[in-house]
Amino acid sequence: MIPASQPTQRPPDARLLAIDRYGRITHMRRTSFDGLLGPGDLVVANDATALPASLQGVHSPTGCPVEVRLASRRSLDETSDFTAVIFGAGDFHTRTEDRPAPPRLNPGDRLRLGPLSATVERLLDHARLVDLHLDGPADTIWAGLARHGRPIQYAYLPVPLELWDAWSPVAGRPVAFEAPSAGFALDWRAVEGIRSRGATFATLTHTAGISSTGDFELDRRLPFDEPYRISKSTASAVESARTRGSRIIAIGTTVVRALEHAASRDGRVHAGDGLATQRIGPESQLRVVDAILSGVHEPGTSHHQLLRAFADDATLRRAGEELDAMGYRTHEFGDSVLIERKR
Question: What is the CATH number of domain 2-50+160-340?
């Protein structure tokens, strides 16, 4: 597998590796995804838009340059208080794991972030991880993010991302920290293809978090707690599909986290806001989602860990070998996999 190095959301040669419930593997063009659907299936996507969550600035006490990457918040409506990962000098051209640490941070330290200012509220047991308060009213913060922020990106993409590169066609509210990139496989033609198969399409909103911090120990904490919102219509569509025994296909790991957390109380997906705090992996018992369409993720990442809830390690190793042999592209602008949960 090789990283996709061009920010093209829907390249015409995008491929899909599909694993059915029996562990059988099929290769196809990603545009043929709807051919795997049947009448009654429900496809659920994340409609969050990515924020310009990377902010270059200066640590006021020392004058040292820093990069702040907003990484989490407690609710979709929060505009001032975030958990952030802070790096020293540099930008995405340097591999995340090679980025220098920030200057020593202390509660009360001020950061100048272009037109914005921020205060370190609390240290979170790691030199790079803090709770951060952005100063000013919401309108000022939004304007500052729009003027100064950039999409979070990594060194495998050699050119700077434009903000719209991280926006999928079905995206709406700007609340994600990185693009919920599994949705790049969709456009409105794909949605029409879903419906033409007799399947239905719905969305929820989940603040997709960062995929890497550059530090092994900190990466082990990923994904951070992430808020989500499920509408009454989507909750109803999910429960209707479950009642009639139809499959629920999640577009991306964020949808899995939201739906499974929403059903954790009593087994039913409830409408409203929530905070996904669980870590999904091989020991998890999925209650809602039957299949996932996801990007191609390397073993050891939090995204790949979630895929282990859908297929056993032997099947995933076999799939990984085929992905390698056939040169599938990884990361957010790469190819895709579809895994149906083993019954």
Answer: 3.40.1780.10
